[in-house]
């Protein structure tokens, strides 16, 4: 798997790709692929646990990045048992299909095996608006060991420091990151909390999204 062109283990993402793919725009034209920067860190030293990090790109029309990463993590945990704290930085939130696959996988991974996962995404994928939003709501309560949120300035700085070949370069959109992230957080809040109630009440969702 490490040699797959869609998977880069222990490699940093190049700066130009990060700058283009992870900008948290509301309308992100020409960004048709999902990038996931991942870090699977042992929560304690010793034993057979070993860190796994890098990035994954989806294979269009074949396999989404989340599904590739899920399989890779499963193999890693089988070969390197231990308890891990995992972080994903995603250019897009999961689609409806990926959310449906993530839900049972996360329940097993987090509740039964004791790991944790923090998922950050730059933009909300809603090509299938109702299905994709329903998928995110399903993930919300999957486990107390799971958190998801929008990539903001702090997460961008983490990526630049740890996972991107930044070479002291400055993102053209760094100063607007937090304001754009705030808009995306409001949209996510609407999807996860407000719109669930709006749908039940029959109120038109376009007023809130």
TrEMBL record:
Task: State the organism named in the record.
Answer: Petromyzon marinus
InterPro entries attached to this UniProt entry: APOBEC/CMP_deaminase_Zn-bd, APOBEC_Cyt_Deaminase, Cytidine_deaminase-like
Q: Which keywords does this chain's UniProt record carry?
A: Hydrolase, Metal-binding
- Statement: the UniProt record of this protein carries the keyword Metal-binding: yes
From the broadest rank down, the organism's phylogenetic lineage runs: Eukaryota, Metazoa, Chordata, Craniata, Vertebrata
Protein name, entry field: Cytidine deaminase 5
Question: What biological processes does GO assign it?
Answer: cytidine to uridine editing
User: Which cellular component appears as one GO term in the record?
Assistant: cytoplasm
What Gene3D superfamilies does this protein map onto? Answer: Cytidine Deaminase, domain 2
Which molecular function GO terms apply here? cytidine deaminase activity; RNA binding; zinc ion binding
